[in-house]
Automatic annotation (TrEMBL):
Function statement: Component of the EKC/KEOPS complex that is required for the formation of a threonylcarbamoyl group on adenosine at position 37 (t(6)A37) in tRNAs that read codons beginning with adenine. The complex is probably involved in the transfer of the threonylcarbamoyl moiety of threonylcarbamoyl-AMP (TC-AMP) to the N6 group of A37. BUD32 has ATPase activity in the context of the EKC/KEOPS complex and likely plays a supporting role to the catalytic subunit KAE1. The EKC/KEOPS complex also promotes both telomere uncapping and telomere elongation.
Highest taxon, organism lineage: Eukaryota
SMART domains: S_TKc (SM00220)
The protein, known as: EKC/KEOPS complex subunit BUD32
Organism: Penicillium salamii
Entry EC number(s): 2.7.11.1
Alphabetized Pfam families for the sequence: Pkinase (PF00069)
InterPro entries per record: Kinase-like_dom_sf (IPR011009), Prot_kinase_dom (IPR000719), Tyr_kinase_AS (IPR008266)
Enzyme superclass (EC): transferase
Domain named Protein kinase: residues: 115-406
Length: 406
């Protein structure tokens, strides 16, 4: 089940008047990762001050009880529900022009599965479900949001994973997921590794020295052989395969390919150092520091209080780590950028749906203003364009229904 603190996020507050006036009408669009839909929360500036995201906690009280047709709610200054709206004009959901598989030549050799063939078993996190098909359990990763950056990250991850050579410490790619009507690419599946991440692991389960060795070898392979920088190495993105007892790295949506997507302060060597520190000490406070303000000396120069079972003395871990870091400091960026086996793929194509013109108001002379490009789902439907719908019942309601049927 999706953790409560991960379930909602807000686009921010929109004010119809001075934001310093408590009576100013305020609208906030809130995304629900559980039901995969936007809900507009309406109230006043008194309840919704700038930047505080009060709207997410307000919606959380009512989200599981709203009809699927509801696209906006109104609350009073105490956060109590005073009205709901099913007016389609209140729906600010953006249209996502998913690409037909026929336009994705870089994915043409991938195996596929249709969305209708996937049976939902659980909701593991934002944009990730535990699903099954043909009696096989898989992790289904998808992007239901029309934001260009998220679409580019999803495109990059499915291309990267599908082209990586098989590796015992990388999550195995499985299939491209297509919607059923027009065979558009809406996500992908990977092998499902049960047991949870190292962030959730029992601190009494010994962390093996071999896992650190595997992780450093994997990072060298990705960085120096393939020119790939994962950029998000952390305990939450590491699993242990119960079949092989190998460490497994997943979640490549922040990965850089050479200079493309490379971000300061997110190099994988730093990621390994901070990951090991967090695992050994159970100290997570460095995760709250922006990557660009962190450096490995923050943890390399201090004593590590061990709060995790290890299969070797902590000094063995630290000595190995220090020696490995030293091997990666010489011509670090040059070696990464000159990796001999770099993987390539094309940029995200522009969906043909965005070439369809739509009306966007009129001039002072009364002439229609025509536009192409991104659009709301409401406009796309008016133009007769096909829209894949992600909305689904809240998981709590499904679980209750299942319990009542037993």
């Amino acid at each position: 089940m999706i953790e409560p603190d991960e379930r909602f996020f807000s686009e921010g507050q929109g004010y119809f008047g001075p934001r310093e006036n408590p009576a100013t009408e305020t609208h906030c669009n809130v995304w629900d990762w559980d039901q995969l839909r936007w809900i507009k929360v309406k109230g006043t500036a008194k309840l919704f001050p700038p930047g505080e995201d009060v709207e997410t906690s307000v919606l959380a009280q009512f989200a599981d009880y709203l009809s699927p047709e509801v696209c906006a709610i109104t609350v009073n200054d105490d956060g109590l529900l005073t009205g709901v709206s099913t007016d389609p004009e209140e729906d600010d959901t953006f249209f996502v022009g998913y690409l037909p598989l026929s336009l994705c030549q870089s994915l043409a050799d991938c195996s596929t599965v249709y969305f209708s063939q996937l049976q939902e078993l659980d909701r593991l996190g934002p944009g990730v479900d535990l699903s099954s098909y043909d009696s096989q359990r898989v992790a289904f990763k998808f992007n239901p949001l029309g934001m260009l950056r998220r679409l580019q990250m999803s495109w990059k991850e499915m291309n990267l994973l599908s082209k990586l050579p098989p590796h015992p410490n990388i999550i195995p790619f499985d299939r491209i997921v297509l919607e059923d009507v027009q065979s558009r690419v809406i996500g992908f599946t990977t092998k499902y590794i049960p047991g949870g991440t190292l962030a959730d692991a029992d601190p009494k389960r010994p962390f093996r020295f071999e896992w650190l060795r595997q992780l450093t070898q994997l990072v060298d392979f990705l960085n120096l052989e393939l020119g790939i920088m994962h950029q998000d190495i952390a305990p939450r993105n590491l699993l242990v395969d119960p079949e092989t007892d190998d460490i497994i790295l997943f979640d490549f949506d922040w990965a850089a390919n050479g200079k493309e997507g490379l971000m300061g302060g997110r190099d994988d060597v730093s990621g390994v150092v901070f990951t090991l520190y967090e695992i050994v000490t159970n100290d997570t406070h460095f995760t709250s520091i922006p990557h660009w303000d962190r450096n490995i000396d923050m943890v390399q120069s201090i004593e590590w209080a061990c709060h995790r079972e290890l299969d070797s003395d902590v000094s063995k871990f630290r000595n190995f780590l220090n020696e490995w870091v030293a091997t990666r400091t010489d011509r670090a960026i040059e070696r990464y950028l000159n990796a001999p086996k770099r993987i390539t793929w094309p940029d995200l194509p522009t969906p043909p749906d965005y070439d369809v013109p739509f009306e966007l108001g009129s001039t002072e002379e009364g002439e229609t203003i025509w536009r192409t490009g991104e659009r709301s789902r409401r406009i796309a439907l008016q133009k007769g364009q096909y829209c894949f719908r992600w909305e689904r019942p809240p998981q709590r309601r499904l679980l209750k229904k299942a319990q009542n049927s037993m």
